[in-house]
């Protein structure tokens, strides 16, 4: 059928089809480059937000007047709203679920006024329906591991395959 089509199609049309296919491929490359740049920009923005968040938490330990404390607390509340997806209370405690990354999420379980454990959820990459498959818990760290590990980010990276 293709041979019959190309045999009857004028050469100018075939050349134009080839030009359009070349343009489409160039636009796909450009789109991929833009997606890569956006990913890098978002990662840098998140790193800057994390640094600002840590600075705000450190400032809470300093002596400050009520107006300054109000500003810092307002900024912290905004940051918590940005990163917390949901908090679920039950008779035994509270589960705080952070806003998920595309294929992962983190939950913290609090009881008796302290963190009890953290659970890392992820989608199975090898699942045939990835990324549409359901998230499942892949690791659950108890309180003693979370609090004894000085590099919590490294702990998460070890299980997520992320580069530090």
Characterization of this structure:
With 164 residues, the protein is α+β, with helices and mostly antiparallel strands. It folds into 2 domains: 1-62; 84-160, no CATH class. The chain is 54% helix and 24% strand. The protein has helices at residues 2-8, 11-59, 66-83, 143-148, 152-160, and strands spanning 84-90, 93-98, 104-111, 114-123, 135-142. The model has no long low-confidence stretch (mean pLDDT 78).
Key phrases:
five-stranded antiparallel beta sheet; 164 residues; 5 strands; 2 domains; alpha+beta; 24% strand
Strand composition percent: 15-25%
Total strands: 5
The low-confidence parts are: none
First-to-last CA distance: 54 Å
Q: Main beta sheet, described?
A: 5 strands, antiparallel
| CA radius of gyration | 25 Å
Q: Total number of helical segments?
A: 5
The quaternary structure here is single chain
Please tell me what the overall shape is: elongated
Determine the fraction of residues in helical runs and give it as a percent range: 40-55%
SSE arrangement, N to C? HHHEEEEEHH
- Average pLDDT taken over every residue: 78
Strand order of the largest sheet: 1-2-3-4-5
Count the domains: 2
Q: What class would the helix/strand composition place it in?
A: alpha+beta
């Amino acid at each position: 059928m293709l041979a019959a089509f190309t045999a009857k199609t004028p050469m100018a049309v075939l050349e134009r089809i080839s030009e359009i296919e070349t343009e489409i491929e160039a636009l796909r490359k450009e789109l991929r480059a833009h997606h890569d740049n956006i990913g890098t920009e978002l990662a840098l923005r998140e790193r800057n937000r994390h640094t600002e968040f840590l600075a705000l938490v450190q400032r809470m330990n300093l002596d400050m007047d009520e107006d300054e404390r109000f500003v810092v607390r307002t900024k912290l509340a905004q940051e918590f709203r940005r990163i917390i997806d949901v908090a679920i209370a039950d008779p035994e405690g509270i589960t705080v679920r952070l806003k998920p990354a595309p294929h992962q999420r983190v939950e913290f379980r609090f009881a008796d006024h302290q963190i009890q454990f953290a659970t890392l959820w992820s989608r199975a990459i090898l699942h045939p329906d990835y990324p549409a498959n359901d998230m499942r818990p892949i690791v659950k760290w108890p309180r003693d591991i979370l609090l004894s590990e000085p590099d919590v980010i490294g702990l998460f990276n070890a299980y997520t395959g992320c580069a530090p």
